[in-house]
């Protein structure tokens, strides 16, 4: 039935393209803000193809179509998308632009929605098509919307005020910092298109996108410290109006494009990673001068102030108690059998829901049993759900959006009875050693995340194995769980952010892993706060990490003989801290279980 639906939808789109005189169309997973997570109204690729991942693109021609995903989704795309309708293409081995250059008919007209693509992508695709005498043209409105009869409307939920007690800085203070930057760079204004940047700058939040507490809006920030907020009129409450004050003018979201035309003659900063091609087109068409520049809120947003840092600590402690209740429950129910990935994820959500400060999950829980644990970005649904078998590895990567902080934690556990294999213990212990190496790292000011990446991989490399994802990503403060610009990852052109200097106040994940395809997977993840380190006799300024996440790590998967004395000391100190921080929040059987889980190695 699902595949029949895909075929009917693809056929309807092709008819609509014919009606418009288009020979093809490009369908990304994207919204008008280039968000990682998007609202249901923007899930055009999923509607067309059935693919439910968070990164991918389809290209539809009249006689063929292809779907492009990276290595994270090799298995998932084949489970969800009909290979008779869409050829499976792997990124970065190829790309939609390259494929179009090879497959578009001579002289073809290929459409794209300029509100869903970057200017750089559009230029690269146009160049690829030129070789075939074909051209890329922006569409006036998205043709998928014309054939998607029951397409959801964008959320009309009200925007919410994020109080200074949680933000640690007023919106006026943040806008003044942006204004100083604009004046220093010689710009008149900046377009703030990323939803989490809008939320941070104006101290507002929302419920328009699952897992990320943002409101659909744009901001034009001016060099005099004023700003214009473009937001749905149904989202504006008296509380929001009072909060924003006279220096922020509230305008209808539908008026954003026209307002860009009003910037004629002005120099306007636009971040090409979040400002879509349509924004550049509108500014250029009006006679403004758009300048590609990093969003001026990104770096100050990444450096958490003391209020945000303490909020994270508080949220992590409550989240750690929920995780501990869950791990105890797994230790009891797992060996009995009868659990599956969905029921386990639901139970974890119930433990988190007991906290009144929880607003949402920070991403869809990765509840992965057996071979599914070998898929780093696996997402369980009714079709993929499998039992959590006794005598196997289970991996759970999850997080919560709390009013005072965003959490992200992975624990890999052995579900008894029986013992893990020597190989499983060896691989898990090597992952643990890499995790400890990052947690204990001390490094000079000026170090970039990419320089630390090998600290985590060295023990796996020594055994001839590795993992294909980054070691750490930035995390927001009651905002996106994946926040730039900082990142701990191999320094390659495909890993933006790995060349960002790490600064005191930045929060990152620490999550090395190992994945044996078709068998099992391991990941150990805590969040860490970059902080200054005082070293006697140090020649220069040095940094290190404060661990923020506290929950026991499964000792059943650890081979103590592989740990050094320093690593054992880290383990024992960490678990003493887990017990100290979480004990006041737990009682009864859970507390007794925690005491046992935290005993020294």
Automatic annotation (TrEMBL):
Recorded GO CC terms: cytoplasm
Residue numbers spanned by region Disordered: 150-172
Domain Peptidase M24 C-terminal: 542-601
Keyword field: Hydrolase, Metal-binding
Gene Ontology molecular functions: metal ion binding; metalloaminopeptidase activity
InterPro entries given in the database record: Creatin/AminoP/Spt16_N, Creatinase/aminopeptidase-like, Creatinase_N, Pept_M24, Pept_M24B, Peptidase_M24_C, X-Pro_aminopeptidase_P
Entry keyword annotation includes Metal-binding: yes
Skewed-composition ranges (Basic and acidic residues): 163-172
Domain (Creatinase N-terminal): residue spans on this chain: 9-140
UniProt superkingdom: Bacteria
Location of the Peptidase M24 domain: 312-530
Family note: Belongs to the peptidase M24B family.
Protein name per its UniProtKB record: M24 family metallopeptidase
Protein source organism: Tsuneonella aeria
């Amino acid at each position: 039935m699902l595949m029949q639906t895909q075929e009917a939808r693809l056929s309807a789109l092709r008819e609509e393209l014919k009606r418009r005189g288009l020979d093809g169309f490009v369908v990304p997973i994207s919204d008008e803000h280039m968000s990682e997570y998007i609202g249901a109204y923007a899930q055009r690729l999923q509607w067309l193809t059935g693919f439910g991942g968070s990164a991918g693109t389809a290209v539809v021609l009249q006689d063929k179509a292809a779907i492009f995903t990276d290595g994270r989704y090799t298995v998932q795309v084949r489970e969800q998308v009909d290979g008779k309708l869409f050829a499976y293409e792997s990124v970065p081995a190829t790309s939609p632009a390259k494929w179009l250059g090879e497959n578009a008919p001579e002289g073809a007209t290929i459409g794209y929605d300029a509100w869903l693509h970057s200017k750089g992508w559009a230029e690269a695709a146009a160049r690829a098509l030129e070789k075939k005498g074909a051209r890329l043209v922006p569409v006036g409105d998205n043709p998928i919307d014309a054939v998607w009869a029951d397409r959801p409307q964008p959320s009309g939920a009200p925007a919410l005020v994020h109080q200074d007690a949680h933000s640690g800085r007023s919106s006026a203070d943040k806008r003044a910092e942006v204004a100083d930057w604009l004046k220093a760079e010689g710009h008149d204004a900046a377009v703030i298109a990323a939803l989490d940047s809008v939320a941070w700058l104006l101290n507002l939040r929302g419920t328009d996108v699952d897992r990320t507490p943002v409101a659909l809006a744009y901001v034009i920030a001016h060099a005099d410290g004023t700003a214009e907020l473009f937001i749905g009129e149904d989202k504006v409450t008296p509380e929001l109006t009072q909060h924003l004050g006279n220096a922020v003018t509230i305008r209808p979201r539908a008026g954003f494009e026209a307002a860009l035309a009003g910037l004629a003659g002005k120099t306007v900063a636009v971040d090409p990673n979040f400002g879509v091609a349509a924004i550049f087109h509108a500014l250029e068409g009006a006679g403004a001068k758009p300048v590609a520049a990093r969003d001026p809120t990104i770096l100050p947003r990444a450096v958490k102030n003391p209020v945000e840092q303490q909020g994270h600590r508080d949220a992590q402690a409550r989240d750690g108690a929920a995780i501990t209740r869950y791990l105890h429950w797994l230790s009891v129910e797992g060996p009995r059998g009868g659990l599956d990935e969905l029921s386990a994820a639901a139970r974890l959500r119930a433990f988190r829901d007991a906290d009144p400060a929880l607003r949402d999950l920070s991403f869809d829980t990765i509840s992965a049993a057996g071979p599914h644990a070998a898929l780093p970005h696996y997402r369980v649904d009714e079709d993929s759900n499998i039992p959590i078998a006794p005598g196997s590895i289970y991996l759970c990567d999850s997080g919560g959006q709390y009013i005072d902080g965003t959490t992200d934690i992975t624990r890999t556990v052995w579900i008894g009875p029986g013992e893990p294999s020597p190989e499983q213990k060896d691989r898990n212990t090597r992952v643990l050693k890499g995790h400890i190496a990052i947690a204990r790292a001390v490094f000079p000011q000026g170090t970039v995340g990419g320089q630390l990446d090998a600290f985590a991989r060295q023990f796996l490399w020594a055994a001839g194995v590795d993992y294909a994802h980054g070691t750490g990503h930035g995390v927001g403060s009651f905002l996106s769980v994946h926040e730039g610009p900082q990142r701990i990852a191999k320094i390659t052109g495909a890993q933006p952010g790995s060349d960002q200097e790490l600064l005191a106040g930045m929060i990152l994940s620490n999550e090395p892993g190992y994945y044996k395809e078709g068998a099992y997977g391991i990941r150990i993840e805590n969040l860490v706060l970059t902080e200054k380190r005082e070293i006697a006799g140090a020649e220069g300024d040095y940094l290190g990490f404060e661990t923020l996440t506290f929950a026991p790590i499964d000792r059943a998967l650890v081979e103590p003989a592989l740990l050094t004395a320093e690593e054992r000391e880290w383990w024992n100190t960490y678990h003493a801290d887990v017990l100290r921080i979480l004990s006041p929040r737990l009682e009864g059987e859970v507390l007794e279980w925690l005491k046992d889980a935290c005993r020294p190695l």
